[in-house]
Amino acid sequence: MKKEADVLKEILDYLKKLGLACYRSPNMPVLRGGVGNMYLSKAAVQGLPDITGVIYGGRAIYIEVKAPKIPKLPFEMDEEELQKYYERKAKCKDKDKERREEQQSKFLSQMKKAGALCLVARSVDDVKRALLEAGYFSDVDAPVH
User: Domains in the chain and their CATH numbers?
Assistant: First the structure.
């Protein structure tokens, strides 16, 4: 099974091949005062996806990358799935993971409302499909200008 880091690299390589200005988001914890003292800097944006960039026409793109086995984020769910998600969430023991997922979903929802192309990708195929559906390509490897 592929790791998230492998999927992230494949997606960035694909976007670079297309000539799109997309980059790994620098939103990592910062070490302060020794081992075990990690924190997000004040400059960090809560929920910022793994990949940010600009695609044709100046439209922003945000991609949250997940390992293939990771279930959907709330951002991707319909009403029935959301209801089941919140039922499971009530029983969840991992509060940090739960908080991160909510921040990621909130950020993606806000950016989508502002006109950005936002998606959660578990493979390069997910990115190809999103770009096709958004009308940026006539096929998965040929840009439409």
Answer: 4-30+37-143 (3.40.1350.10)
